[in-house]
Specification:
two-stranded antiparallel sheet; 11 helices; Butyryl-CoA Dehydrogenase, subunit A, domain 3; alpha+beta
Amino acid sequence: MTLLYSEVEQELRAAVRQVLTDRSSWPTVLAGTETADSHDRELWRRLAADVGCAGLAVPEKFGGAGASWRETAVVAEELGRAVAPVPFLGSVLATAALRACEDDQLLPAVASGERTAVPVMTLSTPPGSPVPSSVVVEDAALTGTVTSVADALAADTLVVPTSHGIYAVEAADTARTPVTSLDLTRRLCNVSLSSAPGRLIAEGAAAERAWAAALAAGAAVLASEQLGVAEWCLDTTVEYLKMRHQFGRPVGSFQGLKHRLAELWVAVTQARAVARYAAGCVADDDADAPIAVSIAQAHCSLVAVRAAEECVQMHGGIGFTWEHPAHLYLKRAKSDALALGTAERHRAALAGLVDLPA
């Protein structure tokens, strides 16, 4: 496995970055957080349908690009750099589940960007968790409530895991109640189902495999998003310290700040390596994937938070203002650190995976 970016991945990155530059500058994102719904539907349409981001990991026989989670992770990295308000993470989780089930009804519509599918799961659910049982099924009608679901407000179809199997439910047949979210670029909501009609996608062992695949792929891709957050924070801070002068010198020339930035650069470089390795292992269905994913999440989540905190602090007074985008990245980093398992949870899981004593 190579951790280097391929030529195709670099071209994909350039295409995504161009769209984000045109449609999702930080003043636009910041203005969106002051509205009731910060989700940018036009931006998501361009990314999902025009660029083809929604179908990257979908096999060609289902209308997708036939790429892998490596390419998907590159997109997540760019979206992290822009804190773009699009339901990409939820789409990745749903796509992984649908792909594992080989669902030929919903998967083509998701791959084309025609429909957005999101799983009904609490965002903090870590890989290795059992299939949730908060939603019950009776005669293909689903009833129950799931709290703190990410991206469900922007979904057309909800993929609902239950102890009876995985079901597809029209989002319009559910009640989605927004909740106060730390990250205003990725709003959470509570999803309530009251005898909502559902279509069975998978059951039994197939449903369990699909659920595990969704969590593993989602955690691997999330690590790349966290990498993107950290990269933006480091790059922006370096540029600011070159420009800002104090006592007749660039602030970045002060030894204490240089040492902090050098240490952060090393941590971000390490984060890039572990994130790329996790995405590669999941893409190749490598036996090392659970270990790689837990290492990536345990490392990248902390690096992203540290980079965002340093960004706020080293920008001085302006970094603490609402008008500066640093707080958007700090909130995304903090939110991502709780998503799909905390660093502590992944370290505990890693201990079991490599047979370390408690």
